[in-house]
Amino acid sequence: MAKNCHNDYKMKFSGDEEFPDLSLHNNHMAKVLTKEIYAKLRGKSTPSGFTVDDVIQTGVDNPGHPFIMTVGCVAGDEESYEAFKELLDPIISDRHGGYKPTDKHATDLNFENLKGGDDLDPNYVLSSRVRTGRSIKGFTLPPHNSRGERRGIEKLSIEALASLDGEFKGKYYPLSGMTDAEQDLLINDHFLFDKPVSPLLTCAGMARDWPDGRGIWHNNNKTFLVWVNEEDHLRVISMQQGGNMKEVFRRFCVGLQNIEGIFKKHNHGFMWNEHLGYILTCPSNLGTGLRGGVHVKLPKLSTHAKFEEILTRLRLQKRGTGGVDTASVGGVFDISNADRLGSSEVAQVQMVVDGVKLMVEMEKKLEKGEAIDGMIPAQK
Amino acid sequence: MASSFSRILTTRRKIGLLSAVGGSVTAGFLLHREHVGAGAPVRRSYPASAEYPDLRKHNNCMASHLTPAIYAKLVDKATPNGYTLDLAIQTGVDNPGHPFIKTVGMVAGDEESYEVFADLLDPVIKERHNGYNPSTMKHPTDLDSSKIHSGNFDPRYVLSSRVRTGRSIRGLSLPPACTRAERREVERVVVDALAGLKDDLAGKYYSLTVMTDAEQQQLIDDHFLFDKPVSPLLTCSGMARDWPDARGIWHNNEKTFLVWVNEEDHTRVISMEKGGNMKRVFERFCNGLKEVERLIQERGWEFMWNEKLGYILTCPSNLGTGLRAGVHVKLPLMSRDPRLNKILDNLRLQKRGTGGVDTAAVGGTYDISNLDRLGLSETCFHSGEEHFEGGVNKVQLVQTVIDGVNYLIECEKRLEKGQDIKVPPPPHKLFK
Predict the structure, then answer these.
(1) What is the pTM of this model?
(2) DSSP 8-class letter at A374
(3) What are phi and psi of B218, to 5 degrees?
(4) Distance (Å, rounded) from C-alpha B132 to C-alpha B375?
(5) Residue B418 CB partners (closer than 8 Å, separation 6+)
(6) Most buried residue among A324, B43, B94, B386 by CB atoms closer than 10 A?
(7) What is the distance between the alpha carbons of residues B107 and B119, in angstroms, rounded to a whole number?
(8) B372-412 per-position pLDDT tens digit
(9) Nearest to B81 among A3, A6, A18 (CB)
């Protein structure tokens, strides 16, 4: 594995001289990183050569926002979470509701365990979507991987996806060779992802060599989609118009398990362990890595004084319809699960299904001019 | 190879670094810097052919010269500080370039990069600097401002005059690669030296991290403040890491001599004033630079320089003199003349908008400066004269600008009177 001779050179300077200035910073990394932790970790490197400075660079470069707490660090490989646990365990605990280093994470991708979810009112729920990420064992992660590795990941992914059948039969579109016609269609379908511009991502090194090794695969039905080598090795997305979250989740689980089976056959299963669940680049996506949500019309509820509190109690979060860091348009919100680690996929999607159903009923009540105070739930 | 580093670190320079870092570990490190060896080889899991970048859509100097064979030869090497080829070329891989504008597409992480990656950097330098061959040629330095003549322009046309260059502190890695400790050391060394400047050069340092709002506004109004780089050409090479840690601006009280610390280079040194007295601007430039050099040498440090490449800077395009001498000049009639670009070419000048590189000219006012950096000294005799072995120096470059701007003003005046203008002959081909 690669030796990090740059880090050896850096060790000639003292920890105090290298310690970053975090006085104006507001992110999880800045809250946790002390000179003692830094001194302890700076001499280490994972077998692939990733160091603590690599982990924290994005958090040093992006001080954050007074109101929004970003994570401020990334993993460069599976081993990062072990080698830098003194730093990452407290960050994981802060980000994931007090999750302890001794806690175990349960994975449940059995879609039959989901109750309901097929009857969300399509007059309000415009579309349903579930996404997650997967990392392929034996390769380093996007902040760190070389061109050779990234191409290796792409090659394996293309082979695996090409062997899918039935409702999952589809096609891969590499970003490098895409024609204008293909590009326009993918944009119109809302499938195409762009080169990351957010400095949170670029400062972590995830956009290097763009668009080499990146691409999009989707099934012919346009309901199951895989992004290759964006922020994670794979992002897997199941989606459709309307409110049938049950169907979206079924296809999600079945598709994922098919893909995992093929990768395992090639001796490259997914990165997973019983403490952190699925291993992904950003510590915020550990566990299930799952964001299940809907685009839902809530013009009255969203302006209600208790809207934020209701979301918090339901363990849900809101985003604008352009995704993270966008504004809502016309009272339509993206509502999804807030949790990732410490609860299973089924449990998280269940919270979305139950929570959205309740909020639609609240919206209907508000339309009729009635109060909703009696409906406000207890903290889940 | 050893001759490139013929200016051996002095004992006092070693003391300088020791006092900053402390301990016998660093003494050993310094002793080994006497010769250039590559660092420990980089071990990777994929062969070079699997790692070779896809440069088919690229138009930059790195992409023109990085063959699979050169890549395979250099990819396992590292400088003593651990800087690798992949790091050096990352900016050129990430930024394919433009069909009309050919960027360099690579940077140096430290002084040794220019040796360890010479198989790639030499052809890039040759292309960028008009055939200058670092393996066979020598770069002359000349900072004697008394050699300049006719350097006082008509202020009805020339609004301001400016000369800038960069300097790197030997022994510390360059902005793409430096650690936070190294960057802070650069700041300490430079600020300490600048504090020793006196008389018309006496001034003050403004650190970006502790600047007050009032100071910031004043620096913006004076057009001194530099921002965090946003150009992907710079950010992709890693120069903006840890911003604004150890970055700052120093200027003299008269606001005519300015030093940027830890932006694209360790230091950028700028002499400027309103109006057209380029000769005085260059005098202050030369005096100031010499004083700063003397002050850092007193403390045991020196600038990165060698006789093949002149002053060593981050971007290969700035090697040699690193000098850009220019004016903001009003040329409304010339700006509409289709011969302008050819005239500038033959005068060895480049035009930019008044916001600097990659901006547009406003109201026929241009930023006109020298095209060349390497192989030519700071002073210059008219480009029509015979060329010598080796190159032209700083004096030569500034004289080129002066002669060129005078010619452009003459053309503008002729157009005002309805007279015709001539395209000057091209200079001798600079290097064989």
Answers:
(1) 0.88
(2) G
(3) -60, -45
(4) 7
(5) none
(6) B94
(7) 14
(8) 777 667 764 333 333 333 345 778 889 999 999 999 999 99
(9) A6
Do B137 and B45 meet the contact criterion of CB atoms below 8 Å apart?
no
Q: CA of B255, closest CA in chain A: separation in Å?
A: 30
First to last CA, chain B: 23
Q: What angle do CA A203, B46, A269 make, to 5 degrees?
A: 80
Q: Which two tokens stand for residue A121?
A: 């009112």
Q: Say yes or no for a CB contact (<8 Å) between A2 and B43.
A: yes
* Percent of residues, chain A, with pLDDT higher than 70: 98
> Cβ–Cβ contacts within 10 Å for residue B358, how many?
10
Q: Average model confidence (pLDDT) for chain B?
A: 84
Q: Chain A contact for B96, CB < 8 A?
A: no
Helices B11-21 and B24-31 sit at what angle, rounded to 10 degrees? 140
* Chain A contact set for B90 (CB, 8 A): 208-209
Token digits for B11? 């004992």
**Partner A contacted by B114 (CB < 8 A):** no
What residue has token string 């670190």?
Answer: B9
- Which residue from B minimizes the CA distance to A23? B209
Q: Please report where in the chains the tokens 């940027």 appear, as a residue.
A: B260
B394-416 helix and B278-298 helix, angle to the nearest 10 degrees: 160
Count how many pairs of residues, chain A against chain B, have C-beta atoms within 8 Å. Answer: 99
How many whole angstroms separate alpha carbon A236 and alpha carbon A233?
Answer: 10
How many CB atoms are closer than 10 A to CB A197?
10
Instruction: Find the farthest-apart pair of alpha carbons in chain A and give their distance in angstroms, rounded.
Output: 71
The answer to whether residues B391 and B375 touch, using CB atoms and an 8 Å cutoff, is yes
How buried is residue B200: exposed, middle or buried, by Cβ count under 10 Å (0-12/13-18/19+)? middle
Q: Encoding tokens for residue B306?
A: 């060698």
Integer Cα distance of A220 and A241 in angstroms: 16
Reported ipTM: the value is 0.90
**Mean pLDDT, chain A, as a whole number?**
94
φ, ψ of residue B366 in degrees (nearest 5): -115, 155
Q: Which of A248, A126, A9, A223 is nearest to B29 (CA)?
A: A9
The model's pLDDT over A182-196, given as tens digits with 9 standing for 90+, comes to 888 888 887 888 888
User: Where would I find the H helices in B33-75?
Assistant: 48-51, 61-65, 68-74
Residue B391: name the closest of B412, B376, B379, B381 by CA.
B376
Closest CA to B394 of B134, B114, B129, B147: B147
Token pair of B339 as six digits:
């011969």
Q: Backbone phi, then psi, for B325, in 5-degree steps? A: -110, 130
Q: Which residue has the higher pLDDT, A1 or B205?
A: B205
Annotated binding site of A for ATP: 127-131, 190, 235, 291-295, 319-324
Cα separation, A328 vs B424, whole angstroms: 61
Structural contact between residues A289 and A135, judged by C-beta atoms closer than 8 angstroms: no
A380: nearest Cα among A105, A304, A287, A353: A353
- CA atoms of A258 and B208, how far apart (whole Å): 54
Q: How many CB atoms lie within 10 A of CB B253?
A: 12
DSSP H or E run through A48: none
pLDDT the model gives residue A322? 65
The whole-number average pLDDT for the span A135-139 is: 95
Q: Residue A1's pLDDT band (boundaries 50, 70, 90)? A: very low
- β-pairing, A125-134 vs A234-241, is antiparallel
Tokens of B24: 């016998």
